[in-house]
């Protein structure tokens, strides 16, 4: 089984160890310098979309031929409901695709890879996570955000040389109580270390491969020290650990941890690697990948933006009031569902009578008045701002008030985007910006982010991000 | 077709009256109109009124709920809904009823209560006339949509955004002369520019308030006129519609429905814009007054700043605009606003406007917009010579 292409996504916000230390009195995770912080409209699903779409773009496989989609995350936006289905829709994958969403353990990503290898399908495997703990805990301080994806080719099985799994019961090393949103650890250091060392070392040792010959090892990294201890135990040079480890710059990436490390190694053109995932419980899964040639890899990290403690807490909705009560403006779920081709895939319509490009492609053609005779056309996910306003305190509708509080302000704009030919069409866009709001005439890129939540169900849509 | 006239008007003060009901306000405006026209409730053949029902009060059958409370029984009563243009359209419907001969005397008007609820609930309701599935879900209310228009307008014509504040200063100055205005105080350019930003480039002073109030007019045929001096002829009406969402319209720097409505109204009244003596335009946000100058033909495209900067729409200018204070400062009780504009025109054209009376007006224009331009209606009134 060959890895055809790969991608990594990290959000742009970073908070440094020093900032947390200065502003909260301590920083307890070992070996971590910076934490990647998700923006207020990012979650494990949107980051999975980012990594997945870029992995597809990096290669040449037609997405309609992908047979399996695996999503591993310990922080799905909903406790129950297969969000993998939404991910498949966002990535425009075929409706007969096999979808597996693994949420019970950070080792879910290892199980996903193992299942994909044994199934021998063309498979997209994505690890995406933003571990969430109380801020005065090691896990709460270490929790970062990121995603990685690999696309496996069905026909070629040359890439994965070897794999193994190991499990040994270690309850309480990392767990979340039923009904609770924060992940905890029992806090017995020696016990937790033993769980980590025993399972990971055993899985790696069970590989048939000669591990001293590999160039990088990407191992589950709850902090920046433990992977190197594994290296010491297995007599692997620290440099090889460093080739597959990014926890120092991102924090703990949960289900995405080992895979982001692996993809990082690919981006350095290192393909003789071991990846070993681990999850509480405890289980570990190791793979030896020794693939000839370069793996097409996209690293889509945005330019870093360093933030302070209060901004981090706001972006994570820790210091934001709940959505206000109200009523009136209501878009039913069936109505919302009818627009998903536009929300996720930005499909406009070309009028069959007069060729006018129309968005949304419903109702009478604005040019010739013909009813609903549109041929669906993909619109460009970037465009020029024609009209814009920055919405600040007091300017947001109630359903967007939390987002406005979390981000400080956002923009609402009309953007002209290109159709498949020379024509353009205007679309309404919410923009999440970092520094200052863009202006009329500026260009903006669009991607899928969480838009708002109604009746407890998060809704996602194309948004402008800059 | 018969001529139609406004023979009497009524209006409550505009403001915040959380202790009053919508029926109570409508009854007060109705009684005032009946007194003004010197008629009785039994003389009314039909009632057409507008309200959005902000807060969710009596959305169904709000017409009869208000008319019976006002002592008008056993006649057809219809509620018209066209967002902020509801009662402008109600008067248009009343005029149609009179001109067609179906009715001799029709009570038209509207009401709204907007201040007896939390800001959050009010904001939900203010958004319900925006385009729900796309526009609102970019996180915007009407302030944001008009701010988008302002961004496009200021950019296209390279106009300094101080003009937005100049409109606020003029209309607050006018409202200070109107004892029934909601925001009856003056403001300076500095006040307007330094106010909190609601939706950039619009500050708080560039936005109308949420207001409680009711307004009514009595529309009648010639046979109902007892005092010709107090009858104002409805010389021409135009109305039009467009996409509810701004992003689907052909322009973001004008409101096509307003343009079309005005063109029809001028044609039917057989006058040109330069014959107007006074206008009440839909200035829910100050950018809207500037767009109205151009959409209504008061000036060419991109030259609205010349009118406001040179005082040509001031009380002593060649075309005083929003002598009442406009939506901006008189207030904007959604369902009452369109009728309220006609109350001001009637008052001016019958020389009853007291300290804010302008000299010898003959023609007045009222411009009432629903949402950000999904509906518009323009009335041209002609006072007794």
* Topology, number of strands of chain A: 21
Structural class category of chain B: alpha/beta
In this structure, how is the largest beta sheet of chain B organized?
9 strands, mixed
Q: Report the average pLDDT across residues of chain A.
A: 93
Ends apart, CA distance between termini of chain B: 22 Å
Which features characterize this protein?
heterodimer; A: 466 residues; alpha/beta; 6-stranded mixed β-sheet; 14 helices; globular; B: 385 residues; 9-stranded mixed β-sheet; 12 helices
What would you say this structure looks like, in words?
The complex is a heterodimer of chains A (466) and B (385). Chain A has 466 residues and is of the alpha/beta class. Chain A has helices spanning 17-24, 44-58, 83-90, 108-119, 138-142, 189-205, 226-234, 238-243, 247-250, 257-267, 309-315, 333-338, 340-345, 401-407; strands spanning 2-9, 13-16, 34-37, 68-72, 98-102, 123-129, 146-153, 160-170, 216-219, 272-279, 281-290, 296-299, 305-306, 347-351, 357-358, 374-378, 382-391, 410-418, 424-432, 443-454, 457-465. A six-stranded mixed β-sheet of chain A has the order 5-4-6-7-1-12, with helices on both faces. In chain A, strands 17-18-19-21-20 form a five-stranded mixed β-barrel. A four-stranded mixed β-sheet of chain A has the order 8-11-10-9, with helices on both faces. In chain A, helix 2 (44-58) packs parallel to helix 3, helix 6 (189-205) packs across helix 7 and helix 11 (309-315) packs antiparallel against helix 14. Chain B is an alpha/beta fold and 385 residues long. Helices cover 34% and strands 17% of the residues of chain B. In chain B, strands 3-2-4-7-1-8-11-10-9 form a nine-stranded mixed β-sheet, with helices on both faces. A two-stranded antiparallel sheet of chain B has the order 5-6. In chain B, helix 1 packs across helix 2 (62-69), helix 3 crosses helix 12 (337-349) and helix 6 (162-175) packs across helix 9. Chain B is globular, with a radius of gyration of 19 Å. Chain B starts with a strand and ends with a strand. The A-B interface holds A 324-331, 335-336, 339, 360, 366, 386-398, 400-401, 403-404, 410, 412-414, 426-430, 437, 439-441, 451-452, 461 and B 56, 118-121, 123-125, 127-128, 130, 132-141, 143-144, 147-152, 155, 196-202, 243, 245-248, 252.
């Amino acid at each position: 089984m060959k890895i055809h292409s790969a991608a990594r996504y990290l959000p742009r916000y970073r908070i440094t160890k020093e900032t947390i230390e200065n502003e909260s009195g301590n920083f307890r995770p070992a070996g971590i310098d910076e934490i990647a912080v998700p923006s207020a409209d990012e979650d494990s699903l949107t980051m999975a979309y980012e990594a997945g779409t870029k992995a597809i773009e990096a290669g040449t496989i037609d997405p309609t031929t992908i047979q399996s989609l695996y999503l591993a995350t310990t922080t799905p936006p909903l406790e129950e409901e297969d969000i993998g289905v939404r991910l498949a829709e966002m990535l425009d994958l075929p409706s007969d695709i096999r979808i597996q969403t693994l949420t019970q353990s950070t080792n879910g990503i290892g199980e996903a890879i193992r299942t994909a290898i044994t199934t021998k399908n063309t498979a997209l495997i994505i690890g995406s996570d933003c571990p969430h703990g109380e801020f005065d805990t090691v896990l709460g301080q270490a929790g970062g955000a990121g995603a990685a994806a690999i696309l496996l080719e069905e026909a070629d099985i040359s890439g994965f040389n070897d794999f193994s799994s190991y499990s040994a019961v270690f309850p309480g090393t990392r767990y979340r109580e039923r009904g609770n949103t924060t992940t905890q650890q029992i806090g017995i250091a020696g016990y937790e270390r033993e769980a980590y060392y025993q399972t990971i070392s055993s899985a790696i040792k069970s590989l048939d491969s000669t591990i001293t010959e590999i160039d990088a090892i990407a191992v589950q990294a709850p902090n920046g020290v433990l992977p190197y201890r594994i290296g010491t135990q297995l007599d692997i040079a620290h440099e090889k650990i460093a080739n597959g480890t990014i926890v120092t710059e991102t924090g703990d990436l949960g289900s995405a941890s080992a895979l982001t490390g692996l993809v990082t190694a690919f981006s350095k053109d290192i393909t003789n690697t071991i990846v070993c995932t681990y999850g509480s419980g405890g289980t570990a899964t190791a793979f030896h990948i020794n693939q000839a040639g370069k793996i097409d890899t996209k690293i889509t990290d945005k330019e870093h933006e360093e933030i302070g403690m209060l901004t981090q807490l706001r972006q994570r909705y820790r210091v934001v009031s709940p959505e206000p009560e109200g009523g009136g403006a209501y878009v039913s779920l069936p109505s919302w569902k009818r627009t998903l081709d536009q929300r996720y895939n930005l499909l406009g319509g070309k009028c069959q009578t007069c060729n006018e490009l129309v968005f949304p492609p419903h109702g009478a053609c604005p040019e010739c008045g013909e009813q609903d005779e549109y041929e669906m056309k993909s619109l460009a996910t970037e465009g020029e701002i024609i009209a814009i306003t920055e919405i600040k305190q007091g300017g947001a509708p109630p359903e967007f008030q939390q987002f406005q509080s979390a981000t400080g302000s956002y923009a609402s704009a009309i953007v002209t985007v290109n159709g498949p030919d020379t024509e353009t069409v205007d679309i309404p866009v919410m923009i999440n910006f970092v520094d200052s709001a863009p202006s009329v005439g500026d260009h903006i890129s669009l991607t899928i982010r969480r838009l708002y939540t109604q009746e407890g169900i998060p809704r996602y849509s194309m948004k402008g991000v800059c | 077709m018969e001529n139609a006239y406004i023979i009497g008007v009524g209006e409550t003060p505009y403001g915040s009256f959380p202790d009053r009901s919508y029926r109570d306000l409508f009854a007060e405006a109705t009684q005032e109109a009946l007194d003004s026209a010197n008629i009785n409730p039994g003389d009314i053949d039909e009632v057409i009124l507008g309200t959005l029902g902000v807060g969710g009060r009596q959305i169904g059958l709000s017409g009869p709920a208000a008319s019976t409370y006002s002592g008008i029984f056993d006649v057809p009563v219809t509620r018209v809904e066209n967002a902020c243009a509801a009662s402008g359209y109600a008067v248009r419907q009343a005029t149609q009823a009179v001109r067609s001969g179906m009715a001799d005397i029709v009570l038209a008007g509207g009401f709204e209560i907007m201040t007896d609820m939390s800001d959050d609930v009010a904001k939900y309701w203010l958004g319900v006339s925006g385009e729900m599935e796309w526009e609102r879900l970019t996180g915007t209310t009407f302030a944001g949509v008009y701010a988008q228009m302002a961004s496009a307008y200021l950019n296209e014509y390279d106009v300094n955004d101080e003009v937005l504040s100049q409109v606020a200063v003029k209309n607050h100055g006018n409202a200070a002369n109107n004892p029934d205005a909601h925001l009856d105080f003056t403001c300076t350019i500095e006040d307007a520019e330094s106010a909190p930003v609601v939706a950039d480039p619009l500050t708080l002073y560039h936005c109308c308030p949420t207001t409680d109030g009711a307004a009514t007019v009595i529309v009648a045929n010639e046979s109902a006129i007892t005092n010709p001096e107090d009858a104002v002829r409805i010389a021409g009406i135009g109305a039009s519609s467009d996409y509810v969402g701004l992003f689907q319209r052909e322009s973001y720097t004008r409101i096509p429905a307003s343009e079309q409505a005005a063109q029809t109204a001028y044609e039917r009244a057989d006058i040109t814009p330069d014959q107007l003596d006074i206008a009440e335009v839909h200035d829910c946000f100050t950018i809207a007054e500037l767009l109205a100058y151009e959409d209504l033909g008061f000036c060419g495209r991109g030259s609205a700043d010349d009118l406001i900067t040179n005082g040509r729409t001031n009380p002593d200018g060649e075309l005083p605009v929003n002598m009442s204070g406009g939506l901006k400062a008189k207030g904007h009780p959604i369902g009452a606003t369109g009728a309220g504009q006609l109350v001001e025109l009637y008052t001016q054209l019958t020389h009853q406007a007291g300290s804010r009376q302008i000299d010898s007006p003959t023609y007045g224009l009222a411009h009432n917009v629903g949402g950000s331009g999904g509906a518009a209606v323009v009335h041209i009134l002609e006072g007794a010579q």
